[in-house]
Design a protein that fits this description.
The complex is a heterodimer.
Chain A: H1 6-13, H2 19-26, H3 29-54, H4 63-97, H5 103-123, E1 132-133, H6 137-148, E2 163-171, E3 179-186, E4 192-199, E5 208-213, E6 216-222, E7 226-232, H7 236-250
Antiparallel strand pairs in A: 1-2, 2-3, 3-4, 4-7, 5-6, 6-7
Helix pairs in contact in A: 1-3
Chain B: H1 2-23, H2 26-47, H3 54-75, H4 95-107, H5 110-121, H6 126-133, H7 137-154, H8 161-164
Helix pairs in contact in B: 1-2, 1-3, 1-5, 2-3, 3-6, 4-7, 5-6, 5-7, 6-7
Classes of the chains: A alpha+beta, B mainly alpha.
Family (chain B): Belongs to the sigma-70 factor family. ECF subfamily.
Protein name (chain B): Sigma-70 family RNA polymerase sigma factor
InterPro entries (chain B): PhyR_sigma2, RNA_pol_sigma-70-like, RNA_pol_sigma-70_dom, RNA_pol_sigma70_r4_t2, RNA_pol_sigma_r2, RNA_pol_sigma_r3/r4-like, WH-like_DNA-bd_sf
Chain lengths: ~260, ~170
């Protein structure tokens, strides 16, 4: 038997040997006989499966066709994803638009709460109760109208026994526009009443709401243009009378302000 | 892109041949080739090697075949060797010997069969075949040696003059 290892014989057969080793193998007759036997076996294996490689290519194995199909699948997937995004978007939008109406009352509730807070803070002030005093009411009206982006007159409540003190601009983060006007009035006894006015855009909720918070009586009303929260120490009936007067003076029929 | 597909197309016959020899079943082999091509097309951007495609394709096919065998075994399916057709069916000299050889290859463990087919049938260099099978070249050679020795034993030892006529 040859001294040349099986691995070397195989490497010779498979063309993996360097020239020098090849010469050595070729010089060994026994080794070459082994190589020939391996070669016959390899030939036989190739003969066995060669016809497969010569078969015509079935169309479902054509890479061009497969690539096209993959592309179509990809587009379908993209289209599907887009569809899902659309449906989700519509769902979310619908969910937002039709969100529980519990949220809407919260907005006017917050306006009422803000009105009461502002009332509590500023009626206690003497020198700084208002930002712009009533003697400059024309300027006050123009200024607040500009800031609230709507035309706002200063209601005259002298019939109800209230003297106009003046007003100020307040933040109202809950509503679009984010601003509110506070107008302050005082009766003969020095008791103060405030009107907290915002544009009505996007507020919703009830047209009237009457609540009592501590010592303060609160009356909220809204029409299509304004919301107005009246906070004062009077009875609900007294506040209602004030509200009627304010409403009459700010209402569309009585003033050219609301022509649109 | 077109170049890539053309190049791919040139390798399909070799892939089919290797797959057929691995599975000895036309449908399974072609399914395997189709899966291989689809995977290659899907991954061309990410994994396409710089060199020739063929070794990469053989790697994909080998792995897919191993996976499918693994899942077949999990499902308890077995390939019925007796019903599997021979690739060559025309009567010719040495046909019986070839059938015998095919059956002998079938009995080899998969790792030996892979090594044998990549080197003898597909003519890959040891280093390429070893890379495809993710084994050292030494391991490849020992598998190859064992496969060849077993086949010689099963197909009648040293002398098989009738096989010589088949080219």
């Amino acid at each position: 038997m040859s001294e040349i290892s099986r691995d070397t014989l195989m490497a010779y057969l498979d063309n993996e040997l360097d020239a020098a080793t090849r010469v050595k193998v070729e010089a060994d007759a026994a080794a070459m006989a082994e190589v020939a036997a391996y070669a016959r076996q390899s030939d036989a294996i190739r003969t066995l499966y060669a016809p497969v490689g010569a078969e015509p290519l079935p169309s479902h194995l054509d890479p061009h066709r497969l690539a096209l199909q993959a592309q179509r699948r990809q587009w379908r997937a993209v289209a599907q994803a887009a569809m899902i995004v659309c449906v989700l978007g519509i769902g979310i939008a619908a969910g937002w638009l039709l969100r529980p109406s519990a949220n809407a009352p919260a907005l006017y509730d917050r306006l009422i709460a803000d009105a009461v807070s502002a009332h509590t803070v500023y009626v206690a002030e003497n020198r700084h109760a208002v930002e712009v005093a009533s003697n400059d009411s024309e300027h006050l009206s123009t200024w607040l109208s500009n800031r609230l982006d709507t035309t706002l007159a200063m209601p005259d409540l002298s019939v109800q026994g209230l003297t106009f003190l003046g007003g100020r601009l307040l933040p109202a983060p809950a509503i679009p526009g984010g601003r509110a006007a506070q107008l302050m009035y005082e009766n003969a006894a020095g008791e103060r009443t405030t009107l907290y006015i915002t544009p009505a855009t996007g507020v919703g909720g009830p047209a009237y709401e009457s609540v009592r918070l501590g010592t303060d009586q609160v009356l909220y009303w809204a029409n299509t243009i304004f919301t107005c929260t009246i906070v004062g120490t009077g009875t609900p009936e007294q506040l209602q009378a004030i509200a009627n007067a304010v409403f009459a003076q700010l209402s569309p029929g009585a003033s050219p302000l609301y022509e649109s | 892109m077109v170049d890539f597909l053309d190049e791919l197309e040139k390798d399909v016959p070799a892939l089919r041949r290797y797959a057929r020899a691995l599975t000895r079943n036309i449908d399974r082999a072609d399914d395997l080739v189709q899966d291989t091509l689809e995977r290659a097309i899907a991954r061309r951007g990410l994994f396409r090697p710089r060199g020739p495609l063929r070794p990469w394709l053989f790697t994909i096919l080998t792995n897919l075949h191993r996976n499918s065998r693994r899942s077949d075994r999990r499902r308890g399916e077995t390939v019925d060797v007796a019903t599997v057709e021979l690739a060559t069916s025309a009567p010719q000299p040495g046909h019986l010997a070839l059938a015998e050889l095919a059956r002998a290859i079938e009995t080899l463990p998969l790792d030996q069969k892979e090594a044998l087919l990549l080197v003898t049938l597909e003519g890959l260099a040891y280093s390429e075949a070893a890379a495809i099978l993710q084994i050292p070249t030494g391991t490849l050679m020992s598998r190859l040696g064992r496969a060849r020795a077993t086949l010689r034993q099963l197909t009648g030892g040293e002398t098989q003059p009738h096989l010589r006529t088949v080219k």
